[in-house]
Amino acid sequence: MTVLLGFLVLFAKLAVVLGVLLFLAAYLVWVERRFLGRLQVRLGPNRVGLFGLLQPLADAIKLITKEDTVPAEADRFIFLLAPAVVAVTALLMFAVVPFGPDITLGGHAIPMVISDINIGLLFVFALSSLGIYGVALGGWASNSKFSLLGGIRGAAQMISYELALGLSLVPIVMLARSFSLVDIVNAQSRIPFIVAQPVSFVIFLLSAMAESKRIPFDLPEAENELGAGFHTEYSGMRFGLFFIGEYVHMQVLGALIAVFFLGGWHGPFLPPAVWLLIKIILVALVMIWVRGTLPRLRYDQLMALGWKVLVPAALVNILVTGVLLV
Amino acid sequence: MPSAIEAIEALATGFATTFKHLFRRPITEPYPEYKRPLPERSRARIVLTRDPDGQERCVACYLCSAVCPVSCISMQSVEREDGRRYAAWFRINFARCIYCGLCEEACPTAAIQLTPDFEHCERDILKMVAEKDDLLVDHCGKDTAYNFYKYAGVSTDVGDKGTHVKEDKPVNVKSNMP
After folding, report:
1. How far lies A113's CA from each of A182, A196, A207, in Å?
2. CATH number of residue B120's parent domain
């Protein structure tokens, strides 16, 4: 009976998280288009429904009804699989993000996280590295030179950023003394880690933006030189899956920044889940603001920033934190 | 180090600029609600005008149809009993028209003219084909005074030979010996 109930609660949590994530992904697209429009002194989509609020729905209908094409000579199986890899890894990453303290229901404590694994942080890194397979293989399987270049760029970019991303979180782990995201959030009940680790925060933010392939680090899909890069050949809902993946990724990174640096669900007055949501949206808005401001980096500039600035800075940061902790 | 400070300064200015733009009025003109006033001579839908007496100006000379780069004008020329020529039917395929205005330039009688009215899209492409009835209008268009037959050296209801503007009386070639 308890096992059954546990499964029921788990599925309820899964359903809610998946629903919220996908809903938010759709509306993040709307927010991005409207907000970016205002940043560029234009209106953005405002035709479908009030303020264009039904635009995501219209987009979804359009994407689903479009023909699903596979280029000749493409590696069919991998081509069809790649978008799913991107979307699924992005969604899975949210499994370890806590969105509130345990609540008690009928005498049982229900953790407000889908799965509190004690190596949650490593799980996140593993999945974000797996996500790049979707990009690289999708680009390769398309049998198009632009896609291939996009995929290669994606892979190279990930290698140089994954390192800084991982190293920037080592001081967090040192401070929280745990790899579990739940423990990391609990360690910030008094002050968020952004106060203690501003350097880590900046490195993580930069790497996270590179990780989510957004301007100014959107080299894999650079539209003016590669024509959408790794997803040039995709159409219809498969392109949509890449898109969903990107926006879920944005939310996950927002959630991770919130968890690691902004105190996760901690916050006064409002319910914990709402605080997490606010922080995610805040990070997303900043990312859109960055997109509205900065041009795309050149390939060598990106590599130089990753290897020559972020990685050494992260290493020094670890050393300093270690010395101060001892 | 100075270059790093410069870079941070540059970044800050960029972010400040885009942030300021958030509070500016968007420069977008939402189209069906706000229609930008068009220049008088902007070229769109083609009409066939009439002369000041209310008669059709078009003499069906085929010049417009010949000059049309996309061959979207066709007609059939006939002659009336009083000597006027006109188009039995006149057809413009607006689905093909590129609104270049060459027909208007070629027209010797100022009959065919382009107007600024551009809002005539259709879902069914065949509805874009305009017949003479759709094209004829009840005014003179841009040239309010011009009447081709007052200058042309042919006898019609407007006047016989020798009665037109700047035209001498016809001479008797047999009595015109030096």
Report:
1. 8, 25, 25
2. 3.30.70.3270
Phi, psi of B115 (to 5 degrees): -110, 165
Chain A contacts of B10, Cβ < 8 Å? none
Number of domains observed in the structure of chain B: 1
Whether the predicted model's global pTM rises above the 0.80 cut: no
- Structure confidence by residue, pLDDT tens digits, A192-241: 888 788 888 888 888 888 877 777 888 777 777 777 777 788 888 888 88
Residue B102 domain boundaries: 46-154
Does residue B9 sit within a domain?
no
Residue A289 with chain B: CB contacts under 8 Å: 15, 18-19
Residue of A39, A46, A294 lying closest to B21 (CB–CB): A39
Q: Does A58 touch chain B (CB under 8 A)?
A: no
Please tell me the predicted confidence (pLDDT) of residue B113.
92
Domains of chain A, by residue range, sit at: 58-325
Closest partner CB to A289 (pick from B15, B24, B25):
B15
The torsion angles phi and psi of B129, rounded to 5 degrees, stand at: -80, 120
CA distance B148 to B111: 9
Q: What is the mean pLDDT of residues A131-154?
A: 84
pLDDT greater than 90 at residue B71:
yes
